[in-house]
């Protein structure tokens, strides 16, 4: 399979192609009395924070309303940041690379420690595929532009294969799970809690996770104007995320029980997923941004983004550059 080139229009429009049913709120100018947080249902800490309402209580005296906007995956959330429908969000390491290449107006504001055990390449329990090298010529599914896109590239490289040695099918997690169960694909590259669900419910076998292959950082991002004007809200949000995260780490069973009806997964699946993710938020470090740059350079070499980017341009210390044509 030859490398797929994404134009700027295709990159920014990826949401409409992949999730035609997902609609974004209309563009809105910055509102100092409204904090709009984008989240994914799989983001345990933010889901629990939303549920307990502590952030709303902290901001009520300032007359600030909190609005939570759910997205199906990271690329869609980045599109929300780009069009101004949210101020703040949480995604994996690859969606920001793709979005920055498309000219999206966001900045990195924090990160979580690496979670390499929380993403994996899965094969059916009775699959004859035993190693990553066995994937040569096989059909592999993943969510386009998601964090696992980089995992596949690096895992193949480690096994002596090229990205072009496999046929990549771009499928949403739900569609990929269905294809996986009916054997329409040979392998599925996916993140938790979808990984844990497939392991527990179908007996899926982990061909490899990201340990020794990719970091799998999770990032907190903000719309540039919001991040510049309201660092106080970013700090407050980080304090609440850290408090909630510390509780999750000490109370995984209780957290899983609360999340089960929200995420629509058995508590045991969520427990396994939570055990693979470190909780809490940390200030940006050069080493983390350097790791992001390696992903960006790899994607540029493979023509998975239209042109090279400089990751540090998407930080508060850099001015926004003009979008790539």
UniProtKB/TrEMBL annotation:
Residues in the signal sequence: 1-28
A Pfam entry, by short name: NMT1
Main location: periplasm
UniProt cross-references to PROSITE patterns, sorted A to Z: TAT
Keywords: Signal, Transport
InterPro entries: ABC_SsuA_sub-bd, Solute-binding_3/MltF_N, SsuA/THI5, TAT_signal
Compartment(s) where it occurs, according to its Swiss-Prot or TrEMBL record: Periplasm
Every Solute-binding protein family 3/N-terminal domain range: 34-255
Family: Belongs to the bacterial solute-binding protein SsuA/TauA family.
Cross-referenced NCBIfam families: PRK11553.1 (NF008588), SsuA_fam (TIGR01728)
Protein name per the record: Sulfonate ABC transporter substrate-binding protein
Origin species: Uliginosibacterium silvisoli
